[in-house]
Amino acid sequence: MKEQSDSLVTLIHDAAGQVGPVAGIDGEMMARRAIRHERTRRGVIGGAVAAALLVLGAAGVAWFTERPALPALLPWVQASSEVRSDGLVFEVPDGYEEFNPVGDPMWGADPVVPDEDDMEEVAHAASWVAVAPAEDEPLAGEQAGNPVTEVDVPGAAAARWSWYEPQYGSDSGYWQRGPGDGDFVGELDVELDTGTVVRLTMSLADDETPQDTFERLVRTVRVDGDPAEPEGPGSTGQEDLPLLESADVPESWERGEFHGLAYAAPGDWAAADGASAEHPTDTLLLRRPDGKAELQLAVVDRLDYLAANREAGPLPDFYRFELAGAEASTVLTERFDGEYRAYIEVRAAGGSSYTVNLFGFDGATGLDDDLAALLGSLGLTGASTDGPPAYDALDPADPLLQDPPSDWEPVTFEGLDLTLPRELKSPEGMWGIWSSDSGDSWEELAITLWDVEGYDPPIQLADYGYRYEPAGTTRGVVTVGTSTDTAVPEPGEPGFLGTATFHLTADGRRAVEIRYEGSGATEERWWQILASLDAAGLTSP
């Protein structure tokens, strides 16, 4: 993870150097914040890096302020070819060749395909087209504030597209530009009759009329009459994996249950600060007394290693294990530089998905036996398929609220009133973010405002945590937990993470999200900040 973070910092600095300084923005601070908020998405890769959207302002962006009407015949190559992918049929420009960087087909202009022995480079092209499941990710252009256009795609239940520029410079935000991104990226989401949404992406470099080119592509799209549907979660691909045997659970181990997943761990392993059964979070961290091993449990939306094994080919040291009631139960093991890693993924049939990670540090021994016993302890309870509890069943947050100290400063953000510690400052050019960073520790509070269009689903509340309705809100959920991503300086040490989502309207289409995290953040401060919230200014005329 550290090597990936260092690469991301370098990439951001390089990109900033290409476009020149942006007034009021600290490049080092911006790079570190990008790492902290990095989110994973399965995208088409073509040599591109996953993009991180940083919200900097409220104004929208416009690619063409006065676009001319499209000509009857666009300047498009005459010998375009028809291709199929993920349930769609469409045409690609002449000269676009198929290549497969990660197992999924892409089409690009003069793609660069490295030798099989080249482990440093993946196949890529300056301009390319690809299709992949959207996986509930919003259109990047929509997040950047660009227009969204609804279109008719033959055979589709619905379709909409937008675009973005993968570079610095917009008022409302920018996309970090990766080596496989062009000057313009267009995305078309197509909803199939099955309810699956697939995304057609076109990345264009050095195109004088990129939006025209992308719209021409959109007009060729139709739903495949005999599609090969994208593999859904029910197709695991694990039946051909070698079986890893489990072992009986030692009597000294203690059993527990985590959101429908039964497990056991050595009796002297203790929950890390802030991560215990007392908090209904979606993560749990247990640590060995000598600090040389730990167990991490989490409820997740996607089983990444299982998906990678299915999409990109067999993974080394990847096994299945037997677990009653599971439609997926796998484990990936790694050993390097005296460290031990075991990544367990479980999905209940028709229910929740979990990751259980066993990590060993500094030459920790005996973890193969611990892994076998851990696998033998796992089981699925009725809660794994019960679904989320009703909002009213959540515990109220009010008993946990604390008055903020008298020396804290009042802050108003777009009509939202709150009180914050004096050391939390909003850097110039960073909209909705307050932070402090001493080098050894850091804190950050970020606020996001939502005003969702009618064709999009409302903002969802977490199905775990505490219910809380400060002034000006209709309902809200607060969570308390930890995240190893917030650690400074060691990734293995967890930092505090608190999140809150509040609906400002009964339909949930206007909402505010607050995220408080960092190695210097504390649960006490989180409840003090929440106690000071007043959203009446957000909803008043």
Walk me through the structure.
With 541 residues, the chain is an alpha+beta fold. It folds into four domains: 2-36; 53-60 and 84-223, Protein Transport Mog1p, Chain A (3-Layer(aba) Sandwich), CATH 3.40.1000; 253-384, 3-Layer(aba) Sandwich (Protein Transport Mog1p, Chain A), CATH 3.40.1000.10; 391-539, Jelly Rolls. 14% of the residues lie in helices and 32% in strands. It has helices spanning 2-19, 27-36, 140-143, 210-219, 304-312, 367-377, 523-531, 536-539, and strands at residues 53-55, 81-85, 88-92, 96-99, 106-109, 128-133, 149-150, 158-164, 173-175, 184-191, 197-204, 222-223, 253-258, 261-266, 270-271, 283-287, 293-300, 318-320, 326-336, 339-348, 353-360, 379-380, 395-396, 409-413, 416-420, 433-437, 442-451, 466-467, 475-483, 495-503, 510-518. The strands form seven sheets. It has a seven-stranded antiparallel sheet with strand order 4-5-6-11-10-8-7. A seven-stranded antiparallel sheet has the order 15-16-17-21-20-19-18, covered by helices on one side. It has a seven-stranded mixed sheet with strand order 23-28-29-30-31-27-26, with no helix packed on it. The longest helix has 18 residues, at 2-19. It is globular. The two termini are 46 Å apart. Mean pLDDT is 75; it is low at 1-80, 168-179, 227-236 and 274-280. The chain crosses the membrane at residues 43-64. Keywords: Membrane, Transmembrane, Transmembrane helix.
